[in-house]
Amino acid sequence: MAHHDVAIRWCEAEVRAHEYANTASNVAFVAFAVAGLRDCRSRRLPRPFVAAELSLCVVAVGSVLFHGTKTWLGELLDEVPMLGLAVVYLWTVVGLLPPRWAAPAMVCGGGGAAAGLAHYLRHRDHAFFSLLFTLQVVAPALIAFSSAPALGVRRGTWYAFLALILGGKVAWELERELWRRGACPASAANPLFWLHALWHVLSAAAHRAAMRFHGDLALAKAKRR
Fold first, then answer.
1. Do the Cβ atoms of 146 and 98 come closer than 8 Å?
2. Which of 27, 67, 93, 223 could form a disulfide with 23 if both were Cys (CB 3.0 to 4.6 A apart)?
3. CA nearest 210: which of 168, 169, 156, 167?
4. pLDDT, tens digit, for every residue of 62-113?
5. Sign of dihedral through CA atoms 209, 170, 56, 68?
6. Which DSSP symbol is given to 25?
7. How many whole angstroms separate alpha carbon 176 and alpha carbon 9?
8. Looking at residue 35, what DSSP letter applies?
9. What are phi and psi of 103, to 5 degrees?
10. What is the pLDDT of residue 212?
11. Share of the chain above pLDDT 70, in %
12. pTM greater than 0.90
């Protein structure tokens, strides 16, 4: 399927035949996922954390396929795993909720992702997809933040997550603005050329910070049982 059938295009696709930088920068997801798997093993974190790191690897593969092919199928292989990863984020913190809320929270998280995916498949509305994914990330982040004081866990790693994800979001929005204005930089010597690649790196680092913090909470919770 031709590239004009995708729901979103990136600046590098406008100025180069192949998205070399956007494709290669996905190595950041794999690198941080490997670090996360090592953390899971060394700290004996529960299965949701292993699932989160494996899901991040799937996201990396999907992103490579999307940026490498610029097709609608590639886009789906990129973005569907992102929705799944966000559900796994919720899974890593759902045990921090009161028991009667845990199952409904997972049902809402999974159901919302499924409904959002159905809407996206029908309308190819990337703005809606971005909003849904943002809400999916914010919910577990707020659960983790609010749970820390009662468990005696410091929030420094959470603030690192926040700084990284906000930095990545700024890079994302700057890149989108350049694309909307038709001002995409053609040269890799221009720092703005690397904005989407920077988003990959910062969002991968934010994932690692979030999972480290969620792991701290899970271990603190386990010690109190």
1. no
2. 67
3. 156
4. 999 999 998 999 999 999 999 999 999 999 999 999 999 999 999 999 998 9
5. negative
6. T
7. 9
8. H
9. -65, -45
10. 98
11. 98
12. yes
